[in-house]
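Exercise: predict the fold of this chain.
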Amino acid sequence: MLGNGTTRAETRAEALGLTAELGRAIALLAGEALAADRLAAARDMLEGLVVVNPREPLAWALLSAVVRRQGQAEAARLCAEVAIRLAPGDERARLARAEALLLSPPERARGRAELRELAGVAGPVGERARTLVAALGS
């Protein structure tokens, strides 16, 4: 039951018995495909994952990266915004949004500001943010 007395609709993932762990494993496999520049394979996996489990922020953040690298700026921003709505504090989602914002001239300043904030984070997200901040000269 949701707080307003209604029940939440079951996702396709739940109906198919796809566990959260399996969904994350698929997302990580897609992330490896992305890192290996196998964009079509990564996109196929991630699009399938967001269809069956639209509540998985990692899948949306990774899909944002894939479509951004394929030159689809608006799709990248949309996917990143979905990831942020699902997990507002998630650093990977914030990084995806920052990178998507860099593609839009009116939004570049926001993207750079987000990257500067993320540059202080430990781990791969902070490392990527620091690299981008240095490359952008900001």
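Check your answer against the key: The two ends are 47 Å apart (CA to CA).
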